[in-house]
Amino acid sequence: MKKYLLVLMISIGILALAACTNNAETTTDDSEVVVESEAGSITKDELYEAMKERYGEQVLRELVYGKVLSEKYEVTDEEVQKEVDTLKEQYGDQFPMLLQQSGFKSEEQLKQTMKVGLLQEKLAMKDIEVTDEEIQEHYDALKPEIQASHILVADEETAKEVKQKLDEGAAFEKLVEEYSTDAGTVPAGGDLGFFGTGVMDPAFEEAAYALEVGEISGPVQSQFGFHIIKLTDKKQLDPLEDMRETIVEDLGRAKVDFTQVEAMVLQELEEANVEVKDEDLKNMFEPAKE
């Protein structure tokens, strides 16, 4: 994910700093009571001051960034949902734990913070250009997902023995049961499912992509041992025009100078005449001194 978006994600979500009921009682100083006890009450002002001290800059920064940047840039609900879905796919069953560890009480809080990150991305990419040549070059370098099965053994001699038996007509799945040390794939006949580039061991990946569907490799050494690989399926790349928008986004993000994003945001705040009235937070948007 984007570096500055990750920074926002690990912050607390947007908090209801002024949370209280409409019929709350008031104290003698006219501050609404949010908690009552025999030991004393907690007022809205006390809550605000405590939360401001702990989280004030984080929350105010997120709120101001969102309000100012939304005047010039648009982030749709669909764009936010796409980023959330990517996180869910990446973390799977660990996604709820990610929310909790990052300080979000709900997915909606994550979406609010995610939107601010995407607004910053729109700002950072506003002057970045991606040429047709760059798009074509990127597309030509893409590889489709492939599906492969393997037999993993400890040494090259055993791998050669397995390959010889396969050449003599032995069933791949039977030799998986007999030889493979990858217990996780043995029940599936050695099937590793579909995968793309950058997922497997580099040597394994190179050998797998060099095969034709149905072809079986010779011994391939990786950090895990020696593999006999069978390519079982290969997807087709979508046409360039169907992938153009995604490619432009990827290439544009790669060109972003992340060290300049904060300065760009502060420039937007200056142009919007942002003035913090709270004395404790008054200087929070001033550029850092070198």
UniProtKB/TrEMBL annotation:
Recorded superkingdom: Bacteria
The keyword Membrane is annotated on this UniProt entry: yes
One Pfam family in the UniProt entry: Rotamase
Annotated membrane topology: Lipid-anchor
Occurrences of domain PpiC (ranges): 143-233
Catalytic activity: [protein]-peptidylproline (omega=180) = [protein]-peptidylproline (omega=0)
Residue ranges the record marks as coiled coil: none
InterPro entries, A to Z: Foldase_PrsA (IPR023059), PPIase_dom_sf (IPR046357), PPIase_PpiC (IPR000297), PrsA_foldase (IPR050245), Trigger_fac_C (IPR008880), Trigger_fac_C_sf (IPR037041), Trigger_fact/SurA_dom_sf (IPR027304)
Gene3D superfamilies: 3.10.50.40, Trigger factor, C-terminal domain
GO cellular component: plasma membrane
EC number: 5.2.1.8
SUPFAM superfamilies recorded: FKBP-like, Triger factor/SurA peptide-binding domain-like
PROSITE patterns listed in its UniProt record: PPIC_PPIASE_2, PROKAR_LIPOPROTEIN
Compartments in which it is found: Cell membrane
Family classification: Belongs to the PrsA family.
UniProt-listed PANTHER family: FOLDASE PROTEIN PRSA, PEPTIDYLPROLYL ISOMERASE
Its job: Plays a major role in protein secretion by helping the post-translocational extracellular folding of several secreted proteins.
Name this protein carries in UniProt: Foldase protein PrsA
Higher taxonomy: Bacteria, Bacillati, Bacillota, Bacilli, Bacillales
